[in-house]
Amino acid sequence: MLLLRPDRVVSVARLTEAVWDGRPPTTSRTQIAICVANLRKTFVAAGYVEDVLVTASPGYMLLAREHRIDSAVFAGRVELARGEAQRGQLAQAADTLAGALGLWRGRALADINGDLVDSESDALEEQRMCVYEQFIELQLGLGRHRQVVAGLLEFVREQPLREHVRAALMLAQYRLGHRAESLELFRQARRMSIEELGIEPGRILQEMHGAILRDDAALTPITGAGGSLRINSTITQLPRDVPSFVGRSSELALLDGLLDRRHGGRSPAVALITGQAGVGKSVTAIRWARRAVPSFPDGQLFADLLGYADGDVSPAAAGPVLADFLRAFGLADDEIPADQDERASLYHGFLEGRKVLVVLDNVRDATQIQALLPRGEACCVLVTSRDMPVSQTSVRLRLGPLGGPESARLLGALVGDHRAGDDPGSIGLLAELCDRLPLALGGAAARLSSKPHWTVGHLVARLQDPLHRLDELSAGDPRIHAAFDASYRILNPAAAMMYRRLGLLGPHDLSPDVGAALLDASAIDAENLMEQLVDAGLLDAVRPDGSGAVRYRLPALLALHALECADADEVPAKLAAAHRRLAAAQAILRGAGCAIADQCHQCMLRDEQLIGDRTSSRSAAEHFEL
Q1: Contact indicator for 255, 397 with CB cutoff of 8 Å
Q2: DSSP E strands: which ranges in 287-413?
Q3: Which of 129, 149, 302, 533 sits at 20 to 30 Å (Cα–Cα) from 179?
Q4: Secondary structure (3-state) at 307
C-alpha cells in the first residue's frame, strides 16, 4: 500500500482496511505500528542509512528518493514515449512503450487478497491495457500490422469488450487481406454488446466497420509515417465491481438513458442515485459505470467524497479531488496549481471535447461537487448520495430495498447456494429480518460464513429478538451501525429527536399527526421534520392512499437504531410525556388511520406510571409491546 503511493501519506485507516479487508481486530493499530517497525528494521539491516518509511499524520509515507519502484519506472517510460511521439519520433516512441510493457510479468499484486488491494490491482491493470492500446496505435501508424496481429488476437480473447483493441485488430486483419475475419470481429462485438450491455457497439467500432465495408483508402498504411501522436493513457479509476451484485435491472436500464442525453444540450448528462444507508447506491453506480465503459473511451474518473464517513473523517473538499483527477491526467504534483479555481479551470480544459464518465460517490451536499461537474456535453456524471444535492439532473433514481427473490439470490451467492437451498423458508425470513437491505444481507451472510456450524434457521432465531438484531448483524459487518450512525449524526436537533421518538413506535405506517403528538408540535412542523428524515434516507414516504394523505414508515432496522439513539440521548420522563400525548390524541390518530393509537392508550391505562419509572427506552418499547 505504501509502494502504491510513494511520497504520499497513507492513513492508518486505509492500511487497516487493506490488511484486514474491512474486518480489523481491536489491536489493528498496534499491529500496523509493529509491521512498520519491522519494515524499518529490515531496511536498516539491508544497509539503508536514510529513512525509507516515515511517520506522517494520519499514517505513514514511503520516501521514493532514488529507489527503483517498478510502477514508477513504467509511468516514467510512458511519459518518455509521450514526449517522443509529440516530437514525431514515432518508431522510438513505440519501442519505448514496448520496453514499458515488457516490465510486466502478469497481473500486479496477483498473490495478495482483499477488496482494496484488488481495486488497486484493477487500476494498475487498466493502466497497462491503456498503454498497450497506445502502443498498438503507434505500431499500426507505422505499418507494422503483421508484428501486432498475434498479440491483438490474444488480447481480444481476454478483453472482448475493449473496443479500441478490437478495432485495431479489425484494421490489422483487413490490411493482411483477411477482410471476412475483420468483419466477423465486428459481428461478434455487436452480439456481445447487445446481449451483455443492451447497447449497440460504440462509434469507433461502427466507423471501422463502415470503412472496411467501403474499402476506405484511409485504412491503407502510409509508408514511413511521420508526424506526431499524443500518448494519453485512458484514465480508469473505477473501483472493482462486486461479483455478488444482483437485481437492479430496471434501475440500470433507467441509467442507460444517460447515454441518450449526452448530446441534448450544452451541459453534461447527470444522474443522481439516492436512498438509505446500505441500500446499494455505490455498487449500483459502479456496476453501471463498468458496463458503460465502452461509451467513454477517453476515461472514467472516480472519487469518494466521504460525505457520510466515520465521525473523525471530514467530507472531501473539491480541491484535493481536483488534484487527484489532474494527477490521473498525467500532471506531476509541481504542475498542479495551489488555487482551487485554477485547478478547476485546468480540469475542465482536459475534459473539453472528451467522452469521460465522472462518478462522484458518497456526496453530502452540492458544494462538494460543483467544481467537479464537467461542462462538455460529451461527458456524463453519476452522483450517489443519501440526500439530494444536485438540482439539474437528467436521471434521478431513488433505490429501495431488494425484492424477495433478489434478496434470496444475494444470500445464496454470499453463503453458497447449497447452504441456502437447504432451507429456502428460512432464507426468506432472514431477508425480511434484514429489511432486504444489501448491507444487512451481507452482514447476515458474513455471520453465517464465520459460523459454518450454524444453520440459516439458527441465525433467523437469533435475529427474532429485536433488541439484539442490530448487534447480531453488525457482528458480521460493523459498517451497518456506522452507516446508520453517520446519517443520524448530521441531523439537526429537532429532526434527530423526531427520528428517536419514531423509533419507539416501530415499523408502522404513521401520519404527521403521530409526529406532532410525539414532539408536541404542529402537524405541519412535524411533517417538515419527517420530510427531512425522508431526504436523509432515515424514513420512507409511503405512497398516498385515495385520500391523498401522506404517510411515513420507519424500516425495522432503522427503527431499532432509532431506539438505540433514544436510549442514549433521551430523558425517560420526556419520553413518558410523549407517550401520554399520543394516548390523549387517540381520537385524532384513529381518525387518521393510525393502528397504534388504541394500543398506546391501553398500555397507558394499564400502568400510566410505569413508563416514567423506566430508565431505558428499550424497556419502554417492550412495555408498549411494539
Answers
A1: yes
A2: 299-304, 357-361, 380-384, 395-398
A3: 129
A4: coil
Sequence-distant (6+) residues with CB within 8 A of 18 are: 1, 114, 116, 117
**Residue 119 maps to a domain:** yes
pLDDT average, residue stretch 356-361: 92
> Tell me: the pLDDT tens digits for 365-392?
888 888 999 887 788 999 998 876 566 7
Residues 126 and 245 in one domain: no
SS3 127: helix
Question: What Å distances lie between residue 253 and 46, 265, 289, CA to CA?
Answer: 56, 22, 12
Q: How many domains are there within the chain?
A: 5
Q: What is the pLDDT of residues 89-146, one digit of tens each?
A: 888 888 999 999 989 888 888 888 888 888 888 888 888 888 888 888 888 888 888 8
> Do 500 and 529 fall into the same domain?
yes
Q: How high is the mean pLDDT of the chain? A: 81
Contact between 408 and 420 under an 8 Å Cβ cutoff? The reply is yes
Pairing mode of beta strands 59-62, 10-11:
antiparallel
Sign (positive or negative) of CA dihedral 477, 241, 112, 65: negative
419 part of a folded domain: yes
| DSSP 8-state assignment for residue 226 | -
Considering the domain architecture, whether residues 423 and 500 belong to the same structural domain is answered as no
Q: Is the peptide bond before 297 cis (omega within 30 degrees of 0)?
A: no
For residues 411 and 428, what is the distance between their CA atoms, to the nearest angstrom?
10
138-147, 170-179, 216-225, 335-344: least confident range: 216-225
- Segment 539-579, tens digit of pLDDT: 988 876 656 677 888 888 998 998 888 888 877 777 777 76
Give me the domain span that covers residue 77: 70-219
Predicted TM-score (pTM) above 0.70: no
CB neighbour class for 43 (10 Å; exposed up to 12, middle 13-18, buried from 19): middle
Tell me whether strands 235-236 and 10-11 are parallel, antiparallel or unpaired: unpaired
- CATH at residue 599: 1.10.10
Say if residue 605 is in the same domain as residue 456: no
